[in-house]
Amino acid sequence: MSGNKEEEDPRINGIKTKIRVVPDFPKKGIMFQDITTVLLDPKAFKDTIDLFVERYRDKNISVVAGIEARGFLFGPPIALAIGAKFVPLRKPKKLPGETIFEEYELEYGNDRLEMHVGAVEVGERTLIVDDLIATGGTLCAAINLLERVGAEVVECACVIELPELQGKQRLKGKPLCMLVEYR
Amino acid sequence: MFAVENGLQGDPRLQAISDAIRVIPHFPKTGIMFQDITTLLLDPVAFKHVVDIFVDRYKHMNISLVAGVEARGFIFGPPIALAIGAKFIPLRKPGKLPGKVISEEYELEYGNDRLEMSMEAVKSQERALVIDDLVATGGTLSASINLLERAGAEVVECACVVGLPKFKGQCKLKGKPLYVLVEPSQLEEITF
Protein backbone atom coordinates (compact mmCIF):
# COMPACT_ATOMS: atom_id res chain seq x y z
CA MET A 1 0.00 0.00 0.00
CA SER A 2 2.94 2.33 0.45
CA GLY A 3 4.26 1.21 -2.92
CA ASN A 4 3.65 1.76 -6.56
CA LYS A 5 0.96 4.07 -7.90
CA GLU A 6 -0.08 1.58 -10.56
CA GLU A 7 -0.88 -1.00 -7.91
CA GLU A 8 -3.03 1.40 -5.91
CA ASP A 9 -6.23 -0.17 -4.69
CA PRO A 10 -9.29 1.74 -5.99
CA ARG A 11 -10.62 2.10 -2.44
CA ILE A 12 -7.68 4.34 -1.51
CA ASN A 13 -8.80 7.28 -3.57
CA GLY A 14 -12.22 7.11 -1.96
CA ILE A 15 -10.59 7.34 1.46
CA LYS A 16 -8.27 10.15 0.43
CA THR A 17 -11.14 12.32 -0.79
CA LYS A 18 -12.82 11.99 2.61
CA ILE A 19 -9.89 13.35 4.60
CA ARG A 20 -10.49 16.98 5.50
CA VAL A 21 -7.48 19.29 5.60
CA VAL A 22 -7.93 22.10 8.13
CA PRO A 23 -5.42 24.96 7.80
CA ASP A 24 -3.73 26.50 10.82
CA PHE A 25 -4.87 23.89 13.34
CA PRO A 26 -3.85 23.45 16.12
CA LYS A 27 -1.64 26.41 15.29
CA LYS A 28 -0.63 28.61 12.37
CA GLY A 29 1.22 26.90 9.59
CA ILE A 30 -0.04 23.39 10.28
CA MET A 31 -2.31 21.80 7.66
CA PHE A 32 -4.21 19.45 9.96
CA GLN A 33 -5.22 16.08 8.49
CA ASP A 34 -8.70 15.48 9.89
CA ILE A 35 -9.74 11.83 9.68
CA THR A 36 -13.06 12.34 11.48
CA THR A 37 -14.64 13.00 8.09
CA VAL A 38 -13.57 9.50 6.99
CA LEU A 39 -15.45 8.11 10.02
CA LEU A 40 -18.57 9.96 8.84
CA ASP A 41 -18.61 7.86 5.68
CA PRO A 42 -19.34 4.23 6.60
CA LYS A 43 -17.99 2.92 3.30
CA ALA A 44 -14.73 4.89 3.51
CA PHE A 45 -14.24 3.85 7.14
CA LYS A 46 -14.94 0.20 6.30
CA ASP A 47 -12.58 0.33 3.31
CA THR A 48 -9.83 1.72 5.55
CA ILE A 49 -10.20 -1.13 8.00
CA ASP A 50 -10.59 -3.76 5.26
CA LEU A 51 -7.36 -2.68 3.57
CA PHE A 52 -5.39 -3.17 6.78
CA VAL A 53 -7.19 -6.40 7.70
CA GLU A 54 -6.48 -7.90 4.28
CA ARG A 55 -2.82 -7.09 4.73
CA TYR A 56 -2.44 -8.46 8.26
CA ARG A 57 -4.88 -11.33 8.67
CA ASP A 58 -2.44 -14.04 7.63
CA LYS A 59 0.63 -12.58 9.30
CA ASN A 60 0.16 -14.28 12.68
CA ILE A 61 -0.24 -11.03 14.53
CA SER A 62 -1.42 -11.51 18.10
CA VAL A 63 -1.27 -7.87 19.31
CA VAL A 64 -2.53 -4.62 17.83
CA ALA A 65 -1.26 -1.63 19.81
CA GLY A 66 -3.08 1.66 19.22
CA ILE A 67 -1.81 5.10 20.13
CA GLU A 68 -4.16 7.36 22.10
CA ALA A 69 -6.51 8.70 20.98
CA ARG A 70 -6.98 8.40 17.21
CA GLY A 71 -5.18 5.06 17.13
CA PHE A 72 -8.11 3.82 19.24
CA LEU A 73 -10.45 4.48 16.31
CA PHE A 74 -8.63 2.19 13.88
CA GLY A 75 -6.79 -0.34 16.04
CA PRO A 76 -9.72 -2.16 17.71
CA PRO A 77 -11.66 -2.91 14.49
CA ILE A 78 -8.47 -4.33 12.98
CA ALA A 79 -7.73 -6.36 16.13
CA LEU A 80 -11.26 -7.78 16.24
CA ALA A 81 -11.16 -8.77 12.58
CA ILE A 82 -7.80 -10.59 12.84
CA GLY A 83 -8.46 -12.11 16.29
CA ALA A 84 -5.68 -10.19 18.04
CA LYS A 85 -5.55 -8.48 21.43
CA PHE A 86 -5.88 -4.71 21.50
CA VAL A 87 -3.41 -2.83 23.69
CA PRO A 88 -3.92 0.91 24.24
CA LEU A 89 -0.78 3.05 24.46
CA ARG A 90 -1.82 6.02 26.54
CA LYS A 91 -0.91 9.48 27.79
CA PRO A 92 0.46 9.53 31.35
CA LYS A 93 -1.70 8.52 34.33
CA LYS A 94 -4.66 7.19 32.35
CA LEU A 95 -3.89 3.49 32.73
CA PRO A 96 -4.54 2.05 36.18
CA GLY A 97 -2.28 -0.59 37.67
CA GLU A 98 1.35 -1.21 36.80
CA THR A 99 2.70 0.54 33.72
CA ILE A 100 5.95 1.26 31.92
CA PHE A 101 6.58 4.50 30.06
CA GLU A 102 8.70 5.84 27.24
CA GLU A 103 9.50 9.52 26.83
CA TYR A 104 9.57 11.22 23.46
CA GLU A 105 10.24 14.71 22.18
CA LEU A 106 7.69 17.27 21.17
CA GLU A 107 8.49 20.53 19.41
CA TYR A 108 8.76 22.12 22.87
CA GLY A 109 9.47 19.73 25.70
CA ASN A 110 8.67 16.05 26.11
CA ASP A 111 5.69 13.78 26.48
CA ARG A 112 5.25 10.17 27.60
CA LEU A 113 3.52 7.11 26.31
CA GLU A 114 2.49 4.38 28.80
CA MET A 115 1.63 0.71 28.45
CA HIS A 116 0.38 -1.87 30.93
CA VAL A 117 2.93 -4.31 32.30
CA GLY A 118 1.86 -7.81 31.33
CA ALA A 119 -0.36 -6.81 28.41
CA VAL A 120 2.10 -8.13 25.84
CA GLU A 121 4.17 -11.30 26.21
CA VAL A 122 7.68 -12.00 25.00
CA GLY A 123 7.78 -12.88 21.33
CA GLU A 124 4.27 -11.69 20.45
CA ARG A 125 4.01 -10.41 16.89
CA THR A 126 2.70 -6.86 17.10
CA LEU A 127 1.21 -4.22 14.83
CA ILE A 128 1.22 -0.56 15.90
CA VAL A 129 -1.60 1.64 14.64
CA ASP A 130 -2.07 5.41 14.56
CA ASP A 131 -4.06 7.70 12.29
CA LEU A 132 -1.03 9.59 10.99
CA ILE A 133 2.78 9.53 10.96
CA ALA A 134 4.52 12.92 11.01
CA THR A 135 8.00 13.03 12.58
CA GLY A 136 7.67 9.44 13.78
CA GLY A 137 8.45 10.39 17.40
CA THR A 138 5.33 8.84 18.90
CA LEU A 139 5.61 5.67 16.82
CA CYS A 140 9.27 5.34 17.79
CA ALA A 141 8.28 5.56 21.47
CA ALA A 142 5.63 2.90 20.85
CA ILE A 143 8.18 0.60 19.18
CA ASN A 144 10.50 1.07 22.15
CA LEU A 145 7.78 0.18 24.66
CA LEU A 146 6.92 -3.01 22.84
CA GLU A 147 10.52 -4.07 22.29
CA ARG A 148 11.34 -3.46 25.94
CA VAL A 149 8.81 -6.13 26.91
CA GLY A 150 10.19 -8.51 24.30
CA ALA A 151 7.52 -8.18 21.64
CA GLU A 152 8.35 -8.35 17.95
CA VAL A 153 7.08 -5.28 16.11
CA VAL A 154 6.11 -6.49 12.65
CA GLU A 155 4.95 -3.19 11.14
CA CYS A 156 3.53 0.27 11.83
CA ALA A 157 0.23 1.08 10.11
CA CYS A 158 -1.09 4.60 9.55
CA VAL A 159 -3.88 5.99 7.42
CA ILE A 160 -1.82 9.08 6.47
CA GLU A 161 1.88 9.80 6.05
CA LEU A 162 3.49 13.24 5.83
CA PRO A 163 6.53 12.08 3.87
CA GLU A 164 8.38 15.40 4.01
CA LEU A 165 8.82 14.95 7.77
CA GLN A 166 10.66 11.66 7.11
CA GLY A 167 9.01 9.80 9.96
CA LYS A 168 9.75 6.50 8.19
CA GLN A 169 13.42 6.97 9.11
CA ARG A 170 12.63 7.00 12.81
CA LEU A 171 11.00 3.62 13.03
CA LYS A 172 14.12 1.67 14.06
CA GLY A 173 14.10 -0.16 10.75
CA LYS A 174 10.50 -1.30 11.09
CA PRO A 175 8.38 -1.03 7.93
CA LEU A 176 5.55 1.44 7.57
CA CYS A 177 2.29 0.75 5.80
CA MET A 178 0.24 3.82 4.94
CA LEU A 179 -2.75 4.44 2.69
CA VAL A 180 -2.54 8.12 1.81
CA GLU A 181 0.39 10.53 1.45
CA TYR A 182 -0.03 14.24 2.05
CA ARG A 183 2.59 16.55 0.58
CA MET B 1 -31.61 -1.45 31.90
CA PHE B 2 -29.16 -4.29 32.13
CA ALA B 3 -28.74 -6.96 29.47
CA VAL B 4 -29.86 -9.65 31.95
CA GLU B 5 -33.18 -7.84 32.36
CA ASN B 6 -33.77 -7.85 28.64
CA GLY B 7 -33.51 -11.36 27.32
CA LEU B 8 -29.88 -12.15 28.03
CA GLN B 9 -30.36 -13.79 31.43
CA GLY B 10 -28.04 -16.78 31.58
CA ASP B 11 -26.14 -15.78 28.46
CA PRO B 12 -22.62 -17.09 29.15
CA ARG B 13 -21.12 -14.21 27.20
CA LEU B 14 -22.08 -11.78 29.97
CA GLN B 15 -20.18 -13.79 32.57
CA ALA B 16 -17.16 -13.95 30.26
CA ILE B 17 -17.29 -10.18 29.82
CA SER B 18 -17.60 -9.57 33.56
CA ASP B 19 -14.75 -11.97 34.34
CA ALA B 20 -12.49 -10.23 31.85
CA ILE B 21 -12.79 -6.83 33.53
CA ARG B 22 -10.09 -6.14 36.11
CA VAL B 23 -10.79 -4.17 39.27
CA ILE B 24 -8.07 -1.79 40.47
CA PRO B 25 -8.72 -0.56 44.02
CA HIS B 26 -8.18 3.09 44.89
CA PHE B 27 -7.65 4.41 41.36
CA PRO B 28 -7.59 7.26 40.48
CA LYS B 29 -8.09 7.98 44.16
CA THR B 30 -8.86 6.29 47.49
CA GLY B 31 -12.25 4.67 47.68
CA ILE B 32 -12.77 4.15 43.96
CA MET B 33 -12.77 0.54 42.70
CA PHE B 34 -11.73 1.24 39.12
CA GLN B 35 -13.29 -1.02 36.49
CA ASP B 36 -10.42 -1.61 34.05
CA ILE B 37 -11.69 -2.71 30.65
CA THR B 38 -8.20 -3.01 29.13
CA THR B 39 -8.08 -6.64 30.28
CA LEU B 40 -11.29 -7.23 28.32
CA LEU B 41 -9.49 -5.92 25.21
CA LEU B 42 -6.73 -8.48 25.83
CA ASP B 43 -9.33 -11.24 25.43
CA PRO B 44 -10.38 -11.20 21.75
CA VAL B 45 -13.32 -13.57 22.39
CA ALA B 46 -14.75 -11.48 25.23
CA PHE B 47 -14.17 -8.20 23.34
CA LYS B 48 -16.02 -9.65 20.36
CA HIS B 49 -18.91 -10.71 22.65
CA VAL B 50 -19.33 -7.07 23.72
CA VAL B 51 -19.50 -5.88 20.14
CA ASP B 52 -21.77 -8.74 19.04
CA ILE B 53 -24.31 -8.11 21.83
CA PHE B 54 -24.52 -4.40 21.01
CA VAL B 55 -24.67 -5.03 17.25
CA ASP B 56 -27.48 -7.59 17.68
CA ARG B 57 -29.44 -5.03 19.69
CA TYR B 58 -28.93 -2.04 17.41
CA LYS B 59 -28.68 -3.40 13.88
CA HIS B 60 -32.41 -3.19 13.24
CA MET B 61 -33.05 0.08 15.07
CA ASN B 62 -32.25 2.28 12.07
CA ILE B 63 -29.35 3.94 13.77
CA SER B 64 -27.30 6.12 11.44
CA LEU B 65 -24.89 7.58 13.97
CA VAL B 66 -22.79 6.18 16.81
CA ALA B 67 -21.19 8.80 19.07
CA GLY B 68 -18.33 7.66 21.29
CA VAL B 69 -16.97 9.53 24.30
CA GLU B 70 -13.20 10.09 24.39
CA ALA B 71 -11.20 7.98 24.91
CA ARG B 72 -12.60 4.56 25.88
CA GLY B 73 -15.77 5.19 23.88
CA PHE B 74 -13.45 5.30 20.85
CA ILE B 75 -12.59 1.64 21.46
CA PHE B 76 -16.15 0.28 21.56
CA GLY B 77 -17.99 2.71 19.28
CA PRO B 78 -16.25 2.23 15.92
CA PRO B 79 -16.59 -1.58 15.75
CA ILE B 80 -20.33 -1.20 16.44
CA ALA B 81 -20.69 1.61 13.89
CA LEU B 82 -18.85 -0.41 11.24
CA ALA B 83 -21.01 -3.49 11.81
CA ILE B 84 -24.33 -1.63 11.62
CA GLY B 85 -23.30 0.67 8.75
CA ALA B 86 -23.51 3.86 10.82
CA LYS B 87 -21.17 6.83 10.94
CA PHE B 88 -18.96 7.30 13.97
CA ILE B 89 -18.64 10.68 15.71
CA PRO B 90 -15.99 11.26 18.38
CA LEU B 91 -17.04 13.38 21.37
CA ARG B 92 -13.81 14.95 22.55
CA LYS B 93 -12.07 16.88 25.29
CA PRO B 94 -11.73 20.60 24.52
CA GLY B 95 -9.40 21.77 21.78
CA LYS B 96 -8.88 18.41 20.05
CA LEU B 97 -11.41 18.67 17.22
CA PRO B 98 -10.57 20.98 14.31
CA GLY B 99 -13.14 23.14 12.55
CA LYS B 100 -16.39 24.37 14.00
CA VAL B 101 -17.45 22.65 17.21
CA ILE B 102 -20.21 22.91 19.76
CA SER B 103 -19.40 22.29 23.38
CA GLU B 104 -21.27 21.24 26.51
CA GLU B 105 -20.11 21.65 30.07
CA TYR B 106 -20.68 19.01 32.70
CA GLU B 107 -19.88 18.67 36.37
CA LEU B 108 -17.06 16.70 37.89
CA GLU B 109 -16.72 16.04 41.58
CA TYR B 110 -14.60 19.18 41.79
CA GLY B 111 -15.15 21.68 39.02
CA ASN B 112 -16.34 21.20 35.47
CA ASP B 113 -15.21 19.70 32.21
CA ARG B 114 -16.34 20.17 28.61
CA LEU B 115 -17.17 17.83 25.77
CA GLU B 116 -17.00 18.96 22.14
CA MET B 117 -18.56 17.72 18.90
CA SER B 118 -18.07 18.78 15.32
CA MET B 119 -20.94 20.99 14.25
CA GLU B 120 -20.98 19.57 10.74
CA ALA B 121 -21.07 15.90 11.71
CA VAL B 122 -24.78 15.52 12.40
CA LYS B 123 -27.68 15.85 10.00
CA SER B 124 -31.02 16.79 11.47
CA GLN B 125 -33.16 13.94 12.84
CA GLU B 126 -30.52 11.27 12.59
CA ARG B 127 -31.08 8.41 15.02
CA ALA B 128 -28.09 8.24 17.34
CA LEU B 129 -26.52 5.84 19.82
CA VAL B 130 -24.09 7.11 22.49
CA ILE B 131 -21.35 4.76 23.68
CA ASP B 132 -18.95 4.83 26.60
CA ASP B 133 -17.18 2.09 28.56
CA LEU B 134 -18.82 2.84 31.89
CA VAL B 135 -21.64 4.92 33.40
CA ALA B 136 -21.29 6.17 36.98
CA THR B 137 -22.94 9.55 37.61
CA GLY B 138 -24.26 9.85 34.07
CA GLY B 139 -22.76 13.33 33.74
CA THR B 140 -20.71 12.62 30.63
CA LEU B 141 -23.55 10.76 28.90
CA SER B 142 -25.98 13.59 29.71
CA ALA B 143 -23.58 16.10 28.16
CA SER B 144 -23.33 13.83 25.11
CA ILE B 145 -27.12 13.65 24.78
CA ASN B 146 -27.27 17.44 24.99
CA LEU B 147 -24.68 17.87 22.23
CA LEU B 148 -26.47 15.51 19.88
CA GLU B 149 -29.91 17.01 20.55
CA ARG B 150 -28.59 20.53 20.04
CA ALA B 151 -27.35 19.39 16.63
CA GLY B 152 -30.80 18.01 15.79
CA ALA B 153 -30.22 14.29 16.30
CA GLU B 154 -32.61 11.95 18.05
CA VAL B 155 -30.77 9.99 20.74
CA VAL B 156 -32.26 6.50 20.70
CA GLU B 157 -30.22 5.01 23.57
CA CYS B 158 -27.00 5.24 25.56
CA ALA B 159 -24.97 2.04 25.81
CA CYS B 160 -22.19 1.09 28.21
CA VAL B 161 -20.23 -2.05 28.96
CA VAL B 162 -20.33 -1.46 32.75
CA GLY B 163 -22.87 0.43 34.84
CA LEU B 164 -23.61 0.96 38.52
CA PRO B 165 -26.54 -1.10 39.85
CA LYS B 166 -28.67 2.04 40.25
CA PHE B 167 -29.23 1.93 36.49
CA LYS B 168 -31.38 -1.22 36.67
CA GLY B 169 -34.97 -1.19 35.53
CA GLN B 170 -36.40 1.60 33.44
CA CYS B 171 -33.76 4.05 34.45
CA LYS B 172 -33.43 6.93 32.04
CA LEU B 173 -30.84 9.63 31.49
CA LYS B 174 -32.43 12.89 30.37
CA GLY B 175 -35.40 10.84 29.27
CA LYS B 176 -33.27 8.47 27.18
CA PRO B 177 -32.98 4.75 27.87
CA LEU B 178 -29.70 3.30 29.03
CA TYR B 179 -28.48 -0.20 28.13
CA VAL B 180 -25.70 -1.77 30.17
CA LEU B 181 -24.03 -5.18 29.80
CA VAL B 182 -22.63 -5.86 33.29
CA GLU B 183 -22.46 -4.49 36.81
CA PRO B 184 -19.11 -3.63 38.35
CA SER B 185 -17.46 -6.45 40.23
CA GLN B 186 -16.25 -5.82 43.78
CA LEU B 187 -18.04 -2.53 44.07
CA GLU B 188 -17.13 -2.35 47.69
CA GLU B 189 -13.78 -3.38 48.93
CA ILE B 190 -14.03 -6.53 50.96
CA THR B 191 -12.27 -6.17 54.27
CA PHE B 192 -11.75 -8.93 56.81
TrEMBL record, chain A:
| Assigned keywords, A-Z | Cytoplasm, Glycosyltransferase, Purine salvage, Transferase
| Biological or metabolic pathway of the protein | Purine metabolism; AMP biosynthesis via salvage pathway; AMP from adenine: step 1/1
The catalytic activity of this protein is classed by the Enzyme Commission as 2.4.2.7
Task: From the UniProt record, list the reaction(s) this protein catalyses.
Answer: AMP + diphosphate = 5-phospho-alpha-D-ribose 1-diphosphate + adenine
Q: InterPro entries from the entry?
A: Ade_phspho_trans, Adenine_PRTase, PRTase-like, PRTase_dom
* Domain Phosphoribosyltransferase, chain residue ranges per copy: 40-167
Where does the protein end up? Answer: Cytoplasm
Top-level taxon: Eukaryota
GO biological process annotations for this chain's record?
A: purine ribonucleoside salvage
Is Cytoplasm one of the keywords?
yes
Just give the chief location class.
Answer: cytoplasm
| Keyword check for Coiled coil | no
Instruction: Kindly name one Pfam family recorded for this protein.
Output: Pribosyltran
An MF annotation (GO) of this entry: adenine phosphoribosyltransferase activity
- What PANTHER family does this protein's entry cite? ADENINE PHOSPHORIBOSYLTRANSFERASE, PHOSPHORIBOSYLTRANSFERASE DOMAIN-CONTAINING PROTEIN
Q: Which family does it belong to?
A: Belongs to the purine/pyrimidine phosphoribosyltransferase family.
On assembly, the entry states: Homodimer.
Q: What is this protein called?
A: adenine phosphoribosyltransferase
Q: Which organism does this record belong to?
A: Eruca vesicaria subsp. sativa
**Top-down, what is the taxonomic lineage of the species of origin?**
Eukaryota, Viridiplantae, Streptophyta, Embryophyta, Tracheophyta
TrEMBL record, chain B:
Q: In which pathway does it act?
A: Purine metabolism; AMP biosynthesis via salvage pathway; AMP from adenine: step 1/1
List the InterPro entries.
Answer: Ade_phspho_trans, Adenine_PRTase, PRTase-like, PRTase_dom
Which GO terms of type biological process are on file? purine ribonucleoside salvage
Record EC number:
2.4.2.7
UniProt KW keywords: Cytoplasm, Glycosyltransferase, Purine salvage, Transferase
> Which reaction does this enzyme catalyse, per its entry?
AMP + diphosphate = 5-phospho-alpha-D-ribose 1-diphosphate + adenine
The record's GO molecular-function terms, alphabetically, read: adenine phosphoribosyltransferase activity
Task: Quote the cellular component terms of the Gene Ontology held in the record.
Answer: cytoplasm
Give the UniProt subcellular location, in the record's own words. Answer: Cytoplasm
Every Phosphoribosyltransferase domain range: 46-169
Highest taxon of the source? Eukaryota
What is the protein's quaternary organization?
Homodimer.
HAMAP family in the record, alphabetically?
Answer: Aden_phosphoribosyltr
Q: Which PANTHER family match?
A: ADENINE PHOSPHORIBOSYLTRANSFERASE (PTHR11776), ADENINE PHOSPHORIBOSYLTRANSFERASE 2 (PTHR11776:SF23)
Q: Which family does it belong to?
A: Belongs to the purine/pyrimidine phosphoribosyltransferase family.
Record protein name field: adenine phosphoribosyltransferase
Q: Which organism is it from?
A: Eruca vesicaria subsp. sativa (Garden rocket)
The upper taxonomy is:
Eukaryota, Viridiplantae, Streptophyta, Embryophyta, Tracheophyta
